[in-house]
Structures are given as structure tokens and as C-alpha cells.
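Box 3.1 A note on notation
Throughout this textbook, protein chains are presented in two layers. The first layer is the amino acid sequence; the second is a C-alpha cell string describing backbone geometry. Keep the layers aligned when reading.
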Amino acid sequence: MELAAQVGSTIAARGWGLVSGGGTQSMMGAVARATRAGGGPTIGVIPQALVDYEVADHDAQELIVTTDMRERKGIMDARADAFLCLPGGIGTLEELMEVWTSRHLRMHDKPVVVLDPWEDFALLREQVKHWRDMGFVHEHAVEQLVWTKSIDEAFAALGIPELN
């Protein structure tokens, strides 16, 4: 949670806003709260089913409620300038794979960066190398997914200028 709070504070300090999955739980909620605490705007995009679980970030400056996860991700993809992935669960993994795949397929050219200070994604990195070695993933695709270990490294890899 401390990592997420530091990411949110850095977003706000750079004059950026946050587009998130619109939840209040876990890393997602911590990033949003810290972004707002630092004066940065937040946009939450959440499916109605999660609103019904009472996990919606009603403090977001804009909360967009969608019918399902596919609509949610489409809106998030369109509204974001870059994608920064922090350690998380299966939803995080699924979203990371989707934005990386769409980047490789030239559906967008936005940076896809993984912040992995504790090597939570170490096995995934090995799997990606294996796919590359087996010829299932091109080297160009591997290069489009940027792995970082520190917040400074991750934000540099995003390649977005500071607004402040």
C-alpha cells in the first residue's frame, strides 16, 4: 500500500491525473486516494457489478459506471496516456496482458510499464522469455513491455512530461 501511495503522490506532484478502475480497495484505491491528497484529479471507471459490492470510488472527480469489464477497459484505454502496472492479482495480470497485446498489435502506442520492486512478476518475466525463445512472442513485443524496479525508473519509462 505504501508503494501505491507513493505512486499516487508522484502522479499528483507531476501535475498529472489518474485514470483507474474506480475501486476503493487495495492498491487501486491507495493510488487514487494519494493522487487526490496531492491535488491530482482522478477518474474512476467501474462496472455496475462492483458498484453493487460497494467498492466504488465515489470520491473520484469523475466516476464512470459501465455495464461490464470490457466496456470499462475500453474507456480506461481511451482516457489514459500510458499504463503503469503495480503488483496485484488476476485482474491486474489480465489488464496488463491486454494493454501489452493491444500495444503490440498497434491498437495504441502508449507506454506499458510494470513497476515491480519485489519481483512479484518474476515468473511472468520468465514465461515471456520462454514464449520468445519458443517463437510465440516476437522480440519487438518483448521490448514494448518495460519492467522497472523503482518509482523513478517507472515514471521515466512512461515518457510523459511533468506538467508542474
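The mean pLDDT is 96. Strands lie at 18-20, 42-47, 62-66, 83-85, 112-115, 145-148.
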